[in-house]
Design goal:
5-stranded mixed sheet; about 60% strand; 9 strands; mainly beta
């Protein structure tokens, strides 16, 4: 008799993107913090999300290519979600096209409007592998 295999619960999204509008007191500037996290929590290691960022601020475009996870160089028994953070300084105060790719293949476009104290979604893709969460002050 075989034991029944237990499979983890399927999630709607593989990643979460937490967007924060922050103020850097040292540089005396506002910036947008893009905080990528996995929805899966790991028990043994703190993995890093490998993200390649291509930005063209003059054209109001940023591309995030989520390439996968990498194991840490050191061994701790601490767990948690994998993450990646990107800070966008000198952002335009108008609509900005942000494209998300997964390993260079899946592509989803969002249009955001960034202001000094707020973030607004103007247009979003119907399907995505990333759940976007905007944090307000």
């Amino acid at each position: 008799m075989r034991t029944r295999q237990i499979r983890p619960e399927k999630k709607d999204y593989e990643f979460e993107l937490h967007l924060f509008n922050m103020f850097d007191e040292i540089q005396n500037k506002y910036y947008i913090l893009f905080d990528f996290r996995t929805t899966k929590i790991f028990r043994s290691f703190l993995y890093k999300i490998n993200v390649e960022v291509n930005s063209n601020i003059s054209k109001n475009e940023i591309e995030f290519n989520v390439e996968g996870l990498s194991a840490p160089n050191f061994s701790f028994t601490e767990g948690g979600y994998a993450d990646f953070q990107y800070r966008l300084y000198n952002f335009p105060k108008e609509e900005m096209n942000i494209r998300f790719l997964k390993s260079g293949t899946f592509s989803f476009n969002y249009i955001f409007k960034f202001k000094n104290k707020s973030i607004e979604v103007v247009k979003k893709s119907r399907k995505s592998f990333i759940n976007i969460i905007i944090h307000k002050d």
